[in-house]
Amino acid sequence: MALTLPLAAAETGHPGYKDTPIIPGTQWHVHDSDRPEPRVVAPAKEIGKPPADAIVLFDGTDLSKWHSGKDDAKWKIEDGAVVCVPKSGDIATREEFGDIQLHIEFATPVPPAGHSQERGNSGIHLMGQFEWQVLDSFENPTYADGGAAALYGQYPPLVNASRPPGEWQTYDIIFTAPRFKDGEMIAPAYVTGFHNGLLVHNHDALHGPTNHRSIGKYNKATKGPIRLQDHGNTTKYRNIWVRPLKAEDAQ
Ligand code: MG
């Protein structure tokens, strides 16, 4: 708690100090009066809805930001949700993303049908390569690294926070794209995220692209589309928005 008038406030009108230690790895003093304040972004009135700087990928009415290969997105819109049409194929964003914050809501089919990987299966492929699993994992055993919110084939979620089929659920995902320098990877992709508000991944380092029964090898890509998986089930999504996190990618 500052009880005295900061020096710089008297000089510049902006609160802070210039007579304090430098913060390691930065050019800034502790409480530096010249350090730029964070930009202002208006949050949504309702938690979970897109903030002012988000790219809204699906608002319940419009699939124009998505495609099915050469065609427009073949999934259907029903009651404000986009529903997978089995055997129509995956849908992907037209835009490509690197580091992102992603909010997405999903519901698996009722009544539940099938077992293990056959029940409510879909998936969110980050950069088109790294699958964050979508599955009905409510009282539905499957292999640990394949349940809802698993990073498929690599990391089980820290907890199973699944709601019953038919109920809307949230994923909030922070994804950091891999880094390359002179053709060599210097940092893998990292994922942190929440399922229905519970932490399920805490800075997990992906070993490579996710696959069924294997682990892929990193390519040199640093951006890619967000791709939603058609796994033959009528899983549905709503309220999808994304915030690019690198300054040069931000809106
Ligand atoms: Mg899947």
Name the structural class. Answer: mainly beta
Strand portion, in percent? 25-35%
Q: How many distinct beta strands?
A: 16
Which residues form runs of ≥5 with pLDDT under 50? none
Per CATH, which architecture of the largest domain? Sandwich
What would you call the shape?
Answer: globular
What pattern of helices and strands is seen along the backbone?
A: HEEEEEEEEEEEEEEEE
Mean pLDDT: 95
Short précis:
Helices cover 2% and strands 30% of the residues. By secondary structure, it is an all-beta fold.
Protein described:
This protein has one helix at 7-12; strands at residues 55-58, 66-68, 71-72, 76-78, 81-83, 91-93, 100-107, 122-126, 130-134, 169-176, 179-181, 184-187, 190-195, 198-205, 227-228, 236-244. 2% of the residues lie in helices and 30% in strands. The chain has 251 residues and is mainly β. Strands 1, 4, 5, 7, 10, 13, 14 and 16 form an eight-stranded antiparallel sheet that branches. Strands 3-2-6-15-8-9 form a six-stranded antiparallel sheet, with no helix packed on it. A two-stranded antiparallel ribbon has the order 11-12. A hairpin with a 2-residue loop joins strand 13 (190-195) and strand 14. The protein has two domains: 1-35, no CATH class; 42-250, Sandwich (Jelly Rolls).
Keyphrases for this structure?
2 domains; 16 strands; binds magnesium ion; single chain; eight-stranded antiparallel beta sheet; mainly beta; 251 residues; six-stranded antiparallel beta sheet; Jelly Rolls; 1 helix; 2% helix
